[in-house]
């Protein structure tokens, strides 16, 4: 069994929402394996081009940054996360990119981003937006930091068949693809698509199970 699988649901939820300490580092590593396919799909949908400035919200241990900057010439990556443990680990893992000025990792929340208007061409996030009870605030921030025509790709747990830890009383606010699409339109995005994707993932105790994820693309 993984370290994550050995935790009670409330602690699993807490470590996913804000990974902390040694356990947080192990949870983040477990997530890397679990989210590999989803992250690859997100990357393909982002369509990163030469010179793009790309923002990741909730980067965890920062393993997506090298893939982003490898997409094309002169791509710059910035990430925000609310976990000091994750910011330190992402900076450690990406020390060379950081030193080269091609990536930056900020301790900040999606609800209040430390960036100018229209600072990014692309924004993406995996496994974070389902923590947003009041989703219009961070969605409005994503729209604000995207340039006109810029694209956001957001992935989250779907409301269908949630794992045991993904409950509102533990800080998870799961929505359907239609509900996310509606919220993005309300936040002011012009073109929005959202759909549910079915996949096979490992449960925390290591057995394969069907999981449902929402993938949203929203263009400013
Ligand atoms: C479940 S982990 C996902 C990490 C990574 N995206 C992945 O797929 O492996 C969620 C991450 O989002 C961060 N996070 C949660 N709420 C956030 C918020 N409002 N703003 C920024 N980061 C947030 C957490 O600290 C954590 O590192």
Q: Please, could you describe this protein's structure?
A:
With 220 residues, this protein is an alpha/beta fold. The protein is built from nine helices and seven strands. The longest helix has 14 residues, at 21-34. The N and C termini lie far apart (43 Å). The structure holds S-adenosylmethionine. S-adenosylmethionine binds at residues 16-19, 31-32, 35, 57-60, 80-83, 86, 109-111, 126-128, 131. The site of S-adenosylmethionine (SAM) has 23 residues, from α2, α3 and β2.
| Total discrete domains | 1
Bound molecules: S-adenosylmethionine
How far apart the termini lie comes to 43 Å
CATH superfamily: Vaccinia Virus protein VP39
Q: Label the overall shape.
A: globular
| Beta-strand proportion | 25-35%
**Share of helix, binned:** 25-40%
The low-confidence parts are: none
The main pleated sheet reads as: 7 strands, mixed
CATH architecture: 3-Layer(aba) Sandwich
- For the CA atoms, what is the radius of gyration? 16 Å
**What's the count of strands?**
7
Secondary-structure-derived class: alpha/beta
- Mean pLDDT figure: 94
């Amino acid at each position: 069994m993984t370290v994550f699988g050995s935790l009670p649901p409330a602690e699993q939820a807490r470590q996913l929402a804000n990974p902390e300490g040694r356990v947080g580092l192990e949870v983040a590593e477990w997530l890397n394996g679990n989210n590999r396919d989803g992250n690859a799909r997100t990357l393909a949908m982002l369509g990163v081009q030469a010179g793009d400035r790309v923002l990741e919200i909730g980067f965890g241990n920062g393993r997506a940054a090298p893939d982003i900057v490898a997409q094309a010439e002169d791509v710059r990556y910035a990430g925000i996360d609310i976990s000091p443990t994750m910011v330190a680990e992402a900076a450690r893992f990406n020390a060379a990119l950081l030193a080269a000025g091609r990536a930056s990792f900020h301790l900040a929340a999606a609800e209040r981003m430390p960036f100018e208007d229209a600072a990014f061409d692309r924004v993406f996030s995996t496994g974070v937006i389902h923590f947003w009870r009041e989703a219009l605030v961070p969605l409005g921030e994503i729209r604000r930091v995207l340039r006109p025509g810029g694209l956001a790709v957001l992935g989250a747990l779907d409301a269908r068949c949630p794992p045991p830890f993904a409950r509102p009383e533990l800080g998870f606010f799961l929505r359907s693809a239609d509900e996310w699409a509606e919220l993005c339109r309300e936040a002011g995005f012009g073109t929005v698509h959202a759909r549910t994707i079915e996949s096979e993932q490992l449960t925390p105790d290591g057995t394969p199970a069907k999981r449902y994820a929402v993938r949203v693309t929203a263009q400013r």
